User: Which sequence fits this backbone?
C-alpha cells in the first residue's frame, strides 16, 4: 500500500526542484521565480498541503504598519478545471502574498509551478518587474537572496550591511548590562530560597488542613502551578544574571544549574529549620542539617518527583530569562 506521506514529500521535493528552490531555514525551501523571492513549505506531512510566501513590494507609508490578512480578488476561481479540487486560496498579509494549496493530490509539480507563475503574473503590481531588485533601497542589479527565519527578500550588499549593523546595535541595546548589579545576586538567590521554603511549607499545611495524604488535580493544573513556582522563584535571579552581564561571560546553562542548586540548598535548609523549630521550639543547627535531606526527599517518591519537577521549572526560568536576547533582523 503506498505511503501518502512519502508521496506528498516526493511531490514537494519535485516542486522545489522545478522551481530551482533550495532548502532554507525553519522547514522552508527558498528561491526566486519571475523576479519574486519566495518561501515554500509543507503545511502538513499527513494531510497534503503547501503554502507559498511571495515577497511583495511594500506600499508607500506601510513600512511600520503591519497589513492585516485579507483575501485577494477571486483570481483562483478563473483557473482551469484541473485546479478545481485543489482548494486554492490567495491572500495578502504584511509584506507577503500567500498562496495556499490545501489539496494538491491531483496536481503535478509542473502544474503547481504553472499555478505559481500565473499567480505572480496576475498580481504583477505587487512584485518587482526586474531581476536583482533590492527591497531595501529599490536599486536594480546587485541584490541577492537572503532569508532570516521565516522572512525572505533580495537585498543589495549595502542594505544588508546596514541591516546587520542595525541588528547588532539592537542586540547591544537589548543586552545592555551593569556589572555592579551582580552584587544583588546573593539577594536574588536568597529570595528564591525563601520562596522555595514557603512553597513547601504551604504544601504541607494544605494536606494537614485537608487531613488527606493525596489530592487529585488535573494535569494542566500541575503544569500551571509548576510554571508559576518556577517563574516566581527563578525570575529575580535570572533578571540579575541578565542585567549584570554574567550571562555573556558564563554559559547560561551552567549559571542556571548553579543558581538552582544554591536556591534549593538554602531553601531546604530554611524549610528544615522551620520544621525543626515547629517540633522542638529551638533552632538546633546540627539537627537542622541532619534533617534537611530526609525532609527534602520525604518518604514518598511522588513528593520527591514533584520537587524535581519544580526545581527543573526554576532552572528553565533562570536560563530563559538570563540568556542574551536576540533581535530579529527585519528584511
Assistant:
Amino acid at each position: 500500500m503506498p505511503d501518502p506521506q512519502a508521496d506528498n514529500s516526493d511531490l514537494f521535493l519535485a516542486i522545489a526542484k522545478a522551481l530551482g528552490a533550495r532548502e532554507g531555514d525553519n522547514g522552508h525551501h527558498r528561491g526566486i521565480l519571475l523576479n519574486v523571492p519566495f518561501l515554500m513549505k509543507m503545511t502538513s506531512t499527513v494531510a497534503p498541503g503547501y503554502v507559498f510566501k511571495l515577497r511583495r513590494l511594500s506600499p508607500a507609508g506601510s513600512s511600520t504598519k503591519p497589513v492585516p490578512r485579507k483575501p485577494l480578488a477571486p483570481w483562483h476561481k478563473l483557473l482551469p478545471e484541473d485546479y478545481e479540487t485543489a482548494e486554492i486560496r490567495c491572500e495578502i498579509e504584511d509584506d507577503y502574498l500567500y498562496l495556499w494549496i490545501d489539496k494538491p493530490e491531483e496536481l503535478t509539480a509542473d502544474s503547481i509551478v504553472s499555478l505559481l507563475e500565473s499567480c505572480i503574473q496576475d498580481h504583477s503590481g505587487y512584485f518587482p518587474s526586474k531581476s536583482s531588485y533590492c527591497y531595501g533601497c529599490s536599486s536594480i542589479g546587485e541584490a541577492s537572496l537572503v532569508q532570516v527565519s521565516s522572512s525572505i527578500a533580495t537585498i543589495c550588499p549595502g542594505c544588508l550591511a546596514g541591516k546587520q549593523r542595525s541588528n547588532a546595535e539592537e542586540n547591544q541595546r537589548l543586552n545592555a548590562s551593569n556589572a555592579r548589579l551582580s552584587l544583588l545576586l546573593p539577594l536574588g538567590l536568597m529570595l528564591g530560597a525563601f520562596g522555595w521554603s514557603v512553597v513547601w511549607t504551604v504544601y504541607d499545611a494544605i494536606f494537614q488542613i485537608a487531613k488527606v495524604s493525596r489530592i487529585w488535580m488535573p494535569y494542566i493544573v500541575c503544569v500551571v502551578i509548576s510554571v508559576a513556582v518556577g517563574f516566581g522563584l527563578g525570575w529575580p535571579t535570572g533578571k540579575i544574571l541578565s542585567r549584570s552581564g554574567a550571562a555573556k561571560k558564563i554559559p547560561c546553562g551552567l549559571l542556571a544549574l548553579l543558581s538552582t542548586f544554591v536556591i534549593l540548598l538554602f531553601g531546604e535548609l530554611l524549610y528544615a529549620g522551620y520544621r525543626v523549630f515547629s517540633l522542638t521550639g529551638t533552632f538546633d543547627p546540627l539537627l537542622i542539617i541532619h534533617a534537611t535531606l530526609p525532609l527534602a526527599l520525604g518518604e514518598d517518591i511522588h513528593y520527591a518527583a514533584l520537587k524535581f519537577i519544580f526545581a527543573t521549572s526554576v532552572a528553565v526560568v533562570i536560563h530563559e530569562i538570563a540568556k542574551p536576547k536576540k533581535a530579529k533582523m527585519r528584511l
In short: Residues 63 and 95 are 9 Å apart (CA to CA). The mean pLDDT is 86.
